[in-house]
Amino acid sequence: MVTYLDAEAAPSRNTGQIRLYNEDAFEGMRKACQLTARCLDALAGLVKPGTTTESIDRFVFEFGMDHGALPATLNYRGYTKSSCTSINHVVCHGIPDAKPLREGDIVNIDVTYILDGWHGDSSRMYPVGQIKRAAERLLEVTHECLTRGIAAVRPGARTGAIGAAIQSFAEAERCSVVRDFCGHGVGRLFHDAPNILHYGSPNEGVEMREGMIFTIEPMINLGRPHVKVLSDGWTAVTRDRSLSAQYEHTVGVTKDGCEIFSLSPGGLDRPGLA
User: Model-level pTM?
Assistant: First the structure.
């Protein structure tokens, strides 16, 4: 049985209950997510051949420090970096390192800042120089999946409507949806209830209610949906080594739809795409 509760009265841990936030919380999330979006905007000029993901990660850390925010991934469950950088066939949770980006790569950069106790979570794809048409098409399909998933958010609908919108479009475009990872509730906690699946039926999942806050972050593969996690315990890759892409926004359910907290202030939600 799913239960909903006033976020102000909720314990400071994930209990499986769904928190309903007030306008003050929405304002806190706007600020945290906009800081993340501004960082992602700034990264658009840094992603190019020869740049290391380690230097990108250092920029994310310093940008947060300069604005009074802490990267949520830093020391989270033993993770030692301030961001995740997932290149080509890496689905998610790629660890920044000293290897330089190469012409034609695609990279997802996932950033979450904690600002005044609120978690602003978002990620985008970045093309490295000129990319092949297949990669460009994957980015286009994945961003459209995110857009369609967000359009399904409204009070009274079920979270399965989000997954159904994403899955139906991705598969019609001969791509696949990763099942192993999902979106999640977010706010005072980094990961909270409910889980937001990126596949399924409109009649599945929990009812969306005004005040809910969660991420939508579809991971779409050019090949099959199967993934495996490498020996580092974090990096997830496609089993068939096909390209993978992901875009992510944090949204809040409003009385007649939703608010996207993490929209780019510079209009760069789709870097490198027309």
Answer: 0.97
Residue 214 has pLDDT above 90, yes or no: yes
> Which residue has tokens 């995740």?
84
pLDDT in tens, 82-115: 999 999 999 999 999 999 999 999 999 999 999 9
Alpha helices in the chain (DSSP H): 23-43, 53-66, 133-151, 160-172
Residue 25, classed as helix, strand or coil, is: helix
Please give the share of the chain, as a percent, with pLDDT higher than 90.
96
**Which pLDDT band holds residue 1 (cuts at 50, 70, 90)?**
confident
CA nearest neighbour of 224 among 164, 180, 161: 180
Cα–Cα distance for residue pair 44/54, rounded to 1 Å = 15
Cβ neighbours, 10 Å, residue 24? 10
